[in-house]
Amino acid sequence: MTIRTYSEIKRKLSAGEAVVMTAQEIKNCTEKEAAEADVVTTGTRGVMSGTYGVFTIPIKSSKFSKATSLSLNGICAYPGPCPNENLNLIEAVVFGTASAGNYGAGMLFRDMLENEPVHVEAVSKDGKQISEEVFFEDMPYAKLMSTRNAFRNYSAMTNPLDHALTTIFHALDFPSNYKELTFSGCGSINPIQNDPSLETIGIGTKVLMNGAEGFVTGTGTRSTAQSPNLTACADMKEMNPDYMGGFMTSEGPECIVSWGVPIPILNDSLLKDVRILDEQIQLPLLDVSVRKPIAYIDYGKLWNEVSLSVKVHADKCRKCELCRVVNSCPMSAVSDAPDINRHRCFNCGLCSTICPDVFSADLGSVDVNIDGIMRNIPVACRQSDRARALKISRELKSRLLDKTFVLTEPVEKLRP
Ligand code: SF4
Ligand code: SF4
In a mutational test of the pocket of ligand 1, which residue from 317, 328, 340 has the highest number of ligand atoms less than 8 Å from its CB? Predict the structure, then answer.
């Protein structure tokens, strides 16, 4: 049985002798090659509503005592919990699910990081109205935290009803009669999927959150032993806007977060865990109207032999007066059809469902037996971005190898 210690792996990393593989590489190599791995890098990117930001916002335009209400680009924020009296700044919390119409906090966080001006509206305790533009670079403190992120287990959704529904699980109204399927989760490269007993992911584990170094702080709300999730905290100033953002659903905007997590291979049991394949990971197919399982499928059909991104056939674009893709892209990544802004694109595939002549992608489909009837349900929209999660796992590997990211040993085990 192979036993490695943290100090041995850290010594090898610092001497440039460690073997680091991405979660995808370790599944594709031979057993002999896999046995050499010291660290495996995992990743996930998806709609993760359990996220909030904490900011210090300097106010220059007027002197005021203490803010009692606040909005950022129209989005409700919460001043405090510190008193902030007579300091001409507002310390505030913004929930990742907060929104003003179609503009959500995930979009705000990304806009802030891209240094777009943030319109601050506040009212002070003494009734003063504050209205000014603030830039992210002038905010001395900006951190993102999570209340629950990076679940091990996610679900797929379909709508069995005879009418369409609005839901956070589809970018458009969810069509009726099992016509479409949506799903979440990056499958076999997902962090906890590669360390399901949370042997190496613990309090103090250093991770990448939206590309910035952060630390696991615990498990989050609704975390269970069967379905654990994680909380973390990271400096937003160090984040990469391409890894975050807001995803528009038919129930309003949601917040996107990405994680990269290193798994040190301390023993044979961990080596076995990181070799898990998509087809070995089951997920329930839920009736979206009541969130109850109606069948069980696996990630093999969802992530193997499908297109991780969309191809554009610009010559096929008819330049319609009203482009449905421009109106429906959940990331606003298509402003001038058919060009895709690849930095914004989430690789959800919805454009290939809406306008398949111009945008091509094989999103896959599943064959399921529901109440004795065999159905083939095509994937219409993905709420996890495996292409970018793979990129994160590669970036984490490079950073471990060039020593710009240092592996940490958890200070305490997680109790999901
Ligand atoms: S991308 Fe499709 S829907 Fe949009 S203008 Fe072109 S042909 Fe029309
Ligand atoms: S895959 Fe298409 S619909 Fe989805 S984010 Fe990218 S451009 Fe928009």
Answer: 317
Within a domain: residue 67?
A: yes
Tell whether 286 is covered by a domain.
no
Question: What ligand 2 atom has the least distance to the C-alpha of 346?
Answer: 5
pLDDT average, residue stretch 200-210: 98
As for how many domains the chain has, the answer is 1
Beta bridge partners of 68: none
Q: What is the DSSP letter of 88?
A: S
For residue 88, being part of any structural domain is answered with yes
| Alpha carbons 266 and 269: distance in angstroms, whole number | 8
Give the range of the structural domain holding residue 124, as residue numbers without chain letter.
Answer: 50-145
pLDDT, tens digit (0-9, with 9 covering 90-100), for 135-165: 999 999 999 999 999 988 899 999 999 999 9
Residue 120 domain flag: yes
Cα 8 to ligand 2 centre (Å): 44
Closest ligand to residue 351's CA: 2
d(CA 345, ligand 2 centre) in Å: 5
| pLDDT value at 85 more than 90 | no
- Please name the residue whose Cα sits nearest to atom 4 of ligand 2: 348
Listed in sequence order, the residues at least 6 apart from 315 whose beta carbon sits closer than 8 Å to its beta carbon are none
Cα–Cα distance measured from residue 54 to residue 148, given in angstroms and rounded to the nearest whole number: 16
- Mean pLDDT to the nearest integer, 349-362: 98
CA nearest to 377, candidates 263, 249, 288, 261 = 288
Find tokens 């998509």 and name the residue.
278
